[in-house]
Amino acid sequence: MAPGGSQITIDCPHCHRFFLERAAAVYQGASIRCPTCSREIAFQTDSPFESVRKAMHEARRIRLSEK
What we know:
The chain is of the alpha+beta class. It has one domain (7-66). The protein contains one helix and four strands, in the order E-E-E-E-H. The protein has one helix spanning 50-66, and strands spanning 7-11, 18-22, 31-33, 40-42. The strands form two sheets. It has a two-stranded antiparallel ribbon. A two-stranded antiparallel ribbon has the order 3-4.
């Protein structure tokens, strides 16, 4: 798989649906729109949503393993 091509599963904190996103797109300060509810998910290390913090941790782990 190409670098940055690994995907992680994200649990939307608003509608609680799961979707896939590239690990390279999930980082501190990024925001992604949920494909189900269309609400913006902001990725911050101090997010009150555990699912957001979990996704950031997993994305970072994948990016580091690809180096």
